[in-house]
Every structure is written in structure tokens, then in C-alpha cells.
Amino acid sequence: MTALHDRWTAHMNANPRARARDAAAALGVSEAALIDGACGVEAIRLSSDWGPLLGALRTLGEVMALTRNEAAVHEKIGVWEGLTLRGPHGVVYGGPIDLRIFPRTWRYAFAVQRPGPRGPRRSLQFFDAHGDAVHKVHLREGSNVDAFDALVGRFREDDAGPVAPSPRPAPEPPDLARVDAEAVLADWAALQDTHDFHAMLRRSKCPRRHAVHLAEGRFSRRVAADAPTRALEQAAAAALPIMIFVPNPGCIQIHSGPVETIRPIGPWINVLDPGFNLHLRADLVDEAWVVRKPTRDGEVTALELFDAEGGLIALLFGVRKEGQAEDEGWRALLAGL
Phi-psi category of 36—alpha, beta or left, where left has phi over 0 and alpha has psi -120 to 50? Predict the structure, then answer.
């Protein structure tokens, strides 16, 4: 047992409801370093050969997949299956768990087993080079524990060496004066697919929030910061299926379907449904925008949420299949914000 794990244990005894992420911040270390300090006691380091390791997750059966950023936590229950990896990008698609992953940003993996009130709590946790969690897979009551043990035995790396996260560099202020606003708006008007939007921003070296500001009155409209709460409540009341994307630098997790139970708790607005939970820090939403993008199937409209640094917290869309027009109910909901 390491000194860091002793400090973590003492912190948890004093703060029994604290999450590992919060404990790491309180102790002045990265979350990956915190978990690494528990190796040999409650954690095991795993291989970073992502293809085989991630491909084995389907053997666990039903799990809870968790992806988060500073302001939003996205939890989805299902089988972690349908993995496709192509170069720097990956997709998990085919069941309730729907992910876009960027394995080049992933660095560390652990199997974690911590005591809980109803027995051991088992999980697989993945971190980037800065020690921040990009994705976690939590076993549930019906998960295959034998498959978990087999996976750990197959991929454990006891001689991997200590975790050495690098500090996350302070973001360089973008040179907005060099952004060609007319070119950005012309490329925006020529979009044929929403998936081309990110590539358009990359080509123009234009930050997403700045592009949304440039497009105000043409493709974007600013709405009140409480818009996500109202959008979720109205979608629930109308039984309107929606898509909710929560990104971080290594993963995007997506919910597609209805939302039902919307409950505020302190600063959080929560979706508390049987197969899907969302926890959104409403007080960290600095800007909310209704954003329209042209496609070959007509305009697609989103609610985009940004934090104070301009980072993307979450995206909300209406459920739509390729080749279909956007749902008019979703358009009407956003028009009313």
C-alpha cells in the first residue's frame, strides 16, 4: 500500500461520498496517479494495446459506460459491443452504448475493485496522458465477473512502471484576427453533412464557440443559460426522442431516445432514467446557443453548451436517421427557447 493510497483512504473516511476525481483534486494529484497508487491493493495496471483490450469488453455483458467532462456526466447501460477502430478514430455502435473514441489520446488503463456496501465495485478505467479520465466501464449486478477476471488476467501489466502524467498545458489564446469570417460562413453555408462541421473548423483554424459567434443571426442564436433545463423538461413532457452528446478529448458518448425523469439537485440538472443518466452542472454553462447546420437532408438544429473557457460541454439534437428530415417537434422546441 502506497502513501498516496493511505491518504486516499483517509480522505474517503472523512468524505465517504467523494468520487475518485474529487479526491484526486483534493490531494493535489491526477486521477490516474491516484488509481496507480492503489495498484496491488485495489487496482491493477492493464495493457494499452487498445484494440484487443477494448474488443474484450463485450464479454462483460451488461455494464454502465461513463464519459464525462468538468460540467457533464453521461452514463449509459448496455453491452459494450460493436467496436470498430480505424486509425486515430473508433466507434462503438450497435446497442445502447454509442461512442466515438480517439485512442491516440488514451495512455493508461486500470482494472479497479473497491469495496462497496453490496460487495466489490469493479470497473475498467481509461486515462489520457494528463491523467484525466476519458472513459470508464462499471460492472453491474448482472455483469460477467468471470469474464472480468479473465480480462484482467489476460491484459495485466505488473511491470508497466509508475504513471507519470504530464501537466495539461494552458490553452493558447486563438489568433482570432487571422480567422477569415467570410470564408467560415461561406463554408458553413456549403455544408452537406453535420459531421463535416468539425473538419470545417479545423481547416479555418476557428474555435467552435468563435464560429458560433460569427454566425449569430444567420446560423446561430444565443439563448439563456437555463436553456438545457427547459429543453430537457419540454422533451420529457412531449415524449420527444433526442440525442445528447457529452465529449471530452478522448471520447464522445451519445444517448439516443426519450428522456423521462428530469430532476434538479443543487447545481445539477439530472436525467434519471433506467438505462440512461445525465448529470449536468447548470451553473457551469456559460453560453447556450441554438445552432443550425445545412445538410443534404435539410437543416439540422442543435443546442450547444459552452463553459467559460469556450469548451464544449454538451450537444443536444433531435433523433434523426440519415436521409431523413429533422423532426419538426424538435425544431419547435428550440424555436421556443
Answer: alpha
